[in-house]
Each structure stands twice: as structure tokens, then as C-alpha cells.
Amino acid sequence: MSDEKISQAERDEAAHFASRAAAAGVARPLAGKGDTPASSSAEPPTLFDVQEMELNFGPQHPSTHGVLRIVLKVDGEKILQAIPDVGYLHRGTEKLFETETYPMGIPHTDRMDYVAAATNNHAFCLAVEKLLDVEVPRRAQLIRVILDELQRLSSHLVWLGTSGIDLGAVTPFWYAFREREQILDFFEEYCGARLTLNCMRIGGLPFDLTTGWIERLFEFVDDLPARIDDYEQLLTDNRIWKKRTVGIGVLTAAECIEWGLTGPIIRASGVEWDLRRAQPYECYDELDFVVPVRQNGDTYDRYVVRVQEMRQSVRIIRQCLERIEAGDIRGKVPRVIKPPAEEIYASVESPKGELGFYCVSNGTNRPYRMHCRPPSFINLQALPKLAKGHLISDLVALIGTIDIVLGEVDR
Amino acid sequence: MAEEPKPPAAAGHAEPAKPKPAAADAAGHPWVASIRAALPDAVVAAKEFAGQITVTVAREQIAAVARHLKEKEDFGYCVDVTAVDWKKREPRFDVVYHFYSFSKNDRIRVKCGAAEGEAVPSIANVYLAANWSERETWDMFGIRFSGHPDLRRILTWEGFHGHPLRKDFPLEGIDTGAAIYPEEWPEGGGPSPTDPNRKVVS
Questions:
Q1: CB contact, 8 Å: A91 with chain B?
Q2: pLDDT, tens digit, 9 for 90 and up, residues B44-95
């Protein structure tokens, strides 16, 4: 009699959990204790031995740095599989290029990697210049390099601040964005825009520098190394930062090459490859700078490489400012740009990696096909490999360390 | 080049001092010779423009060519995979690959033609980096890659009909309700021929 009562209570409990499990999407036949004698020969499955769960990470999660959705298969906190789902920000930029003239394409590139518009402009212009065989005047080359390196600084500062905040380091964010504001002020003074710069033209530049810009930039770059020291003081030897980053998401050099990873990621894995050094464009070949390389290929090393790159950018800017001389800012470009019916690929070292444009011309004033090789998109491919076996909290560190911009991933 | 639809238009600004950049035949280039030696019937054409080598190969041979370039010529890094829609040409599409060699510090561009509905052998098993790029090419142009491990749409969503970078896809897009009317918007077919908003660009 009492036995029956207990089993009735147990049955109710089992039914309660069964309904909850069904609501949670767990498809597993429940066998309560003493419920069905037919299944008693099999091993009684326990209620909470569900190993695998599907979890949607994003698209509105702040640490995805945009609209990135990742479908996670997790076992508790451990990631068994991570499947990125991209395309939420797809605007058909490559289609738009085809319908507009070459100069009209430049503002569209601003909207791809929207934290590094100058390098996007540069890659686009470089492709068309190669096709036209146009020489860029020396003054324009130097200013382009300054703009590129300022953009690299500002992009790395955004990366430093946001990926720090992802891992709980709130303070560096305020420091990094303070300096970024100053860089954006320089851009604003130069071209009127702070983010979507549209600051280059085919064959040169749209504007010359304003009075006093060079002097103020000298002051800024003199000041910056001390500020980078401040960030390093907050993070480099920080025990929590190291615990969250050392040994997380390790990539070997061979894996990086196989996955097509570029930029700071491949340099943190021991490959000294930087397009500014390997295939110099503009006047990078005459500038004295070091390509920072680290050997471990983990999240910490990628952090160190980016911070060292910021120091090198400061060096490059200073050298350019010293070399700058009076001269033209635009080369001899026809009023109507009609490149020969050929195809070209040109790439620059953007803050994220190799940013290339493949341009097919049919001899008219509009590109027949303009394709962008986006570093963020290709780098993001490695996320499933990086995330496998790590914890969900490490995924945040890994998304940060790839340094994606969804505008460029989705285009 | 036979596959270009138009000869280069004469520019209004004549500059006699500088010769116009022109493509040269690159059949004798060592990389082209190497491909030809390993795969005798693969190379269709080769040209050089602005220091960039372009090799056109047979569609069936593309995976073999990629493997040869990777293993024998040390082009270890697949930069990019994309396509060009020539609309009126036969075959309609060019699938374009860029490879980079760290030891040579140089790039090679490999192209192969693909007609409407023809599948191109996937190189995602040769270069892991080509996986997403091939998915993007499938999504944007509707070119299938045979042997691809996971050929799904990537930038548009599953169930989207049409391939946006085809020249006959309207610039203003299609009604995204299209996905629920497969009889009116056939998969892979671009915009419906009966659509009054259909506009053919370029």
C-alpha cells in the first residue's frame, strides 16, 4: 500500500520533469523508477544525463561585435561544435560597385570595414590605379601611409578596448577610446568625416593637409608611446588577463596558412608576413619598421602582436611626417576613368589582415566585377576550429582575438 | 583575350608618352610550364598583365591544378575564390582563384569556365581556406562545387531564391517573400521572368 503511494508520487515527479524536458526540447524517452517493466532490462537512463545542448550565441549578443550568430553545441560549459552564421549585414556592396563609376565605389568601401575605412579606400584605389597604371605623387603616398597607420592605430585601439571589456577589463576601454577620439579628430580635420572617411581618390587624395595638422600629429605621436605603456601596464602582466588568454585558441603556423589567416593572427603564430614588407606598396619599402612576430599563436600572443604593431605604426607615422614635402596630391588621372579591359588583384595590409580587391574591367567607366577579399570573413572561418573544446566564456575571447568587423564579413 | 566581351575602349585623353598597359602571353612562364608538364590537357590559356599571371584551365582539372600548385609549386595559401558572370558568353561564368606562395612571394590567378548548371570540382579539400569562399560563390552566383563538404548559402539565408551577383538579378533586390513561393521563384533561377519590377542591370 505504502509502496504504491511512493511510486505514484515518483511517477508524478517523473511526469513533471518529462514535461519540462519536453519544453526544453530534449527528446529522450523518460523511464521513471518502476514505471515500465518492459524497459527494466535496459540500463535505466537518468533524468539529467543530457550531454549535448544547442545554444544560440548572438546575433544580438554584445560580445559578438556586431550581428554574428554562432550556433553552439555544448556539453555543459564545454563547446563541442561552433557553427558561425553570418550574413545579417549583407548589403550587396559588390553588386553596387558594378552599377556605379569607379570613383563612386570608394564611399561603399567605407561601409565594409567601418572601423578601418582608410585601408579599405586604399585597397580599392590601389586596384584601379594598377589597372590604369597611374603613378601616385610622393606627397600623396606619404599622406596615404600616415592615414593608413592612423587607421591601424584606431582600429587596434577599438579592438583593445572592446576585447578587453569582453573579458572583464573595463578600464583599458576608456583609455583606448580616449586616444581613438583624438585620432578621429585628426581624420575629421583632414576630410570632415570621423568613420566613413572616403579619404582617398584614384590616383591620389581628395584634399591637402590643413595648416598645423602635421605639427599637432607630431605632438600626438610623441605622446602616444607613453599611453601604450599605460595599456600594457593594465593588461600585459595582469594575472587575470593572462589566465583568460594564455593558451586559448592556439594556432600553428601551418594551420594559419592552411586556413588562409592573415594579419596579426599569422604573425602571432610565428610567420613573419606582412604585406607592407612582403609586397610593399606606396613608400613602405623605404620606411624603417619591424614586423612584430610571436611564436605561441594563442590569444595572448595576438594581443602582444597588436600592441607592438601600434608602436610600429607610431614609428612609421613619425618617419612619414619627417619626409613629407610640398607637391601634388593627385597623379595624372583622366577625368573619366575608363581602365583597359583587363583584370587585376591588389591588396593592402589592413589592420585585420590581407584586404584585396579583384577588379574586372570591360573598358567602360564602371567596373564589370569588383570583388573584395575580406580578411575578417576568411579569418572567421577558423572560429569553429579555435572554439572546439574551449569553454563558452573563452568563445568571447576568441571572437575578440580574431578581430572581426561584421560589415566586412557580410559586405 | 577571346573571353573578354568588348575590346578596350579608346580613352579620350591620348598620352603618346606612355604606352597603354597591355596583356602579354605567358605560355612560357615556368609555373604554366609546370602545370602543363604535370597535367598535359589542363592549361587552356595563359596571360600576364601588370606582372600578374593568369592561367585559364579546364573546369574538370581545377582541383588537380590546385593540388599541383599547392604541393609542387608551393602555393600554400589560397587567397580567394570568386566568380565573374559574363551573361552572354558561353560558358557563362568564370570561377577565379588566387593563390599565394610564401617562398616565391608571388601570386597566381587560376580561372576556369563554368556553364549554367555545371558543377566545378571543389578545392575545399585541397585548401581549407576555400570552404567559405566557395560557399559565397555558390550563394552569389549559383555555381555548384562538387565534392564541397558543406555547400550551403552563407550570406543570404537558406530558402532565398536567386543569386544576387548574377547580372540578371535586379539591383533593387527581389521580394523576400519569394522564399515561400518556390513555384514562382525557382531555386537558382534568379528573378521571376514575369516580375514587372525586373530590371536588368549592365
A1: no
A2: 888 888 888 899 998 888 999 998 988 888 888 999 999 999 988 888 899 9
Q: Do A260 and B165 touch (CB under 8 A)?
A: no
Please report which confidence band the pLDDT of residue A55 belongs to, taking 50, 70 and 90 as the band edges: confident
For cell 508524478, the residue is: A12
pLDDT, mean over chain B: 79
Closest Cβ opposite residue A257 in set B49, B50, B77:
B77
Q: Which of A92, A260, A278 sits opposite B164 (nearest CB)?
A: A92
Beta bridge partners of A79: A74
Query: Chain A: nearest CA to B72, how far in angstroms?
Result: 16
Q: Give A 212-241 residues with CB within 8 A of chain B.
A: none
ipTM value for the complex: 0.78
SS3 of chain B: CCCCCCCCCCCCCCCCCCCCCCCEECCCCHHHHHHHHHCCCCEEEEEEECCEEEEEECHHHHHHHHHHHHHCCCCCEEEEEEEEECCCCCCCEEEEEEEEECCCCEEEEEEEEECCCCEEECCCCCCCCHHHHHHHHHHHHCCEEECCCCCCCCCCCCCCCCCCCCCCCCCCCCCHHHHHCCCCCCCCCCCCCCCCCCCCCC
**Closest partner residue to A340 among B8, B79, B98, by Cβ?**
B8
Instruction: Name the residue ranges covered by the structural domains of chain A.
Output: 1-50, 93-410
Cell of A224: 602616444
What's the pLDDT score for residue A359?
A: 92
The pLDDT of residue B4: 46
A343/B109 CB distance under 8 A: yes
Is the CATH number 3.30.460.80 carried by domain B24-131? yes
List the one residue out of B4, B139, B113 whose CA is nearest residue B60. Answer: B113
Residue B11 reports pLDDT greater than 90: no
The fold for domain A93-410 equals Cytochrome-c3 Hydrogenase; chain B (1.10.645)
Q: Of A364-373, B2-11, B151-160, which has the strongest mean pLDDT?
A: A364-373
Comparison of pLDDT for B171 and B67, the residue scoring more = B67
Give the model's pLDDT for residue A31: 42
Say if the Cβ atoms of A369 and B202 lie within 8 Å. Answer: no
* A87/B12 CB distance under 8 A: no
Of A130, A344, A381, the CB nearest to B132: A381
pLDDT (tens digit per residue) in A131-162:
888 889 999 999 999 999 999 999 999 999 98
Chain A closest CA to B187's CA: distance in Å?
Answer: 19
The answer, for A334 touching chain B at a CB cutoff of 8 Å, is yes
